[in-house]
Each structure stands twice: as C-alpha cells, then as structure tokens.
Amino acid sequence: MTAEVEIFFDLSSPWTRIAFHNFRSWAAGKDIAVTWRPFLVGGVFNAVNDSVYAGRDNPDNTKFRLTYVWLKEWAKLAEVAMNFPSRHHPLKSVHAMRFCCALEDDQEALTRLSEAAFEAYFADQQNLDDPSVLAAIADSAGLDGAALGALAQSPVIKDRLRANTQEAIDRGSFGSPTFFVEKKYMYFGNDQLPLVQSRIESLIESPAR
Questions:
Q1: Which range is least confidently modeled, 39-43, 60-64, 81-85, 106-110?
Q2: Is the peptide bond before 177 cis (omega within 30 degrees of 0)?
Q3: Largest CB tally within 10 Å, which of 7, 30, 34, 101?
Q4: Mean pLDDT, rounded, of the chain
Q5: Of 23, 10, 49, 2, which is closest to residue 128 (Cα–Cα)?
Q6: Distances (CA, A) of 76 to 22, 31, 82, 83
Q7: Is the distance from CB of 207 to CB of 83 less than 8 angstroms?
Q8: Does domain 3-205 have CATH number 2.160.10.10?
Q9: Closest CA to 120 of 86, 72, 79
Q10: Given the DSSP bridges, would you call strands 32-38 and 3-9 parallel, antiparallel or unpaired?
Q11: Per the confidence metrics, is the pTM higher than 0.90?
Q12: What are the extents of the domains in the chain?
C-alpha cells in the first residue's frame, strides 16, 4: 500500500535542511507518494509561534546556545554541511519560497532546486533573499533561473505561497518541517523522523487503510 506524505518546508530552516536529506535518503525506493509543500515559516511564527522571536532575543540562554551545538551534531550525523549561522541569518525567505512555489507542480524539479539552495545557504552562506542568487542556483540545478525568477514574481505564485502558509497554519503547523502522513498524522522536525518512518512503514505493510 502506498503511503501519502506531505511535507511543508522552508529553505531557511537548518533543521529542515537536515530532515530533507534524511527523509529523502530513507524514503528512496519505498512505496511512498511524497509531496513537498513550500510555505513561509516566518508567517507561521507570526501567526502561532512567536515565542521563536523571544528565544532569538535572548541568545545567552542555555537552550538557545545548546541548540546550535546539537544542530552541528545532527548535521555531522547526517553528513551534510552546516556552516551556520551566517551573516544572512535570520533569513527573509519569501523570494526563495516563491521560487519553490513556482515549481511545486514539478516535484522532481522542486527537489533539485531545494537541494541546491540548501547547499548554497548552509554550506556556502549565500544569500537566498537575493533573486539573482536564486536564479544562479536554479541554473546550477539545470533549471532556467531567469524564467523561474519571473514566474516567482507573478501574482499567482505570490498567492500560492500565501495559501500554502495559511493551509499549514489551519492544519496545525507551528514550524518547519511539518509532516502530514495520510493527511491526518502530523509530525514536526528532524528529531521526529523515526515517528514519521514508523507510521509510514505501518501503512505500507497494512493490507488496507
């Protein structure tokens, strides 16, 4: 039985960068219908999780400091680059996520762009808030960066990003990445991937829903 998974994600999130790698590595070859859903995590924070900003305002607290330690350890375990934070953090990701929304209907192209963008931001510390940088990243992923950039500025794509973000909020999301398995089981973050995997495996092995 095929398991259906939606993943709401924002390129600015370091935990999403790790989860993107880990989930795709684990899911390869399995009977899973995966849909990556670009959204604006800042919009989610503003609506339902503004405590994130309070944590940033107090960088000396233990949780804040250790989070960066754990982040580097998770990245090392996943074998992905994590040259973070950079001078662009916290990143305004609206342009980047519009680029992603422009590719949402072509999931293969979306994952190629996302992988290249994650590497550009978290390894090379490039500025994903710069449309010219995003266009160059798209070109490097074998896409037409100029055409994609133009599409990303269209009203339909701007509306789509807003709609995706609102949908995530309405369904209970409070950060990136948010996983929905079979549209009803919600999980959050890289550290809950074992729960996502367990749920998916139980569905694949089940003879009926």
A1: 60-64
A2: yes
A3: 101
A4: 94
A5: 10
A6: 12, 28, 8, 11
A7: no
A8: no
A9: 86
A10: parallel
A11: yes
A12: 3-205
Report the C-alpha gap between 36 and 40 in whole angstroms.
Answer: 13
Q: What is the pLDDT of residues 165-202, one digit of tens each?
A: 999 999 999 999 999 999 999 999 999 999 999 999 99
C-alpha torsion sign, points 152, 156, 160, 163: positive
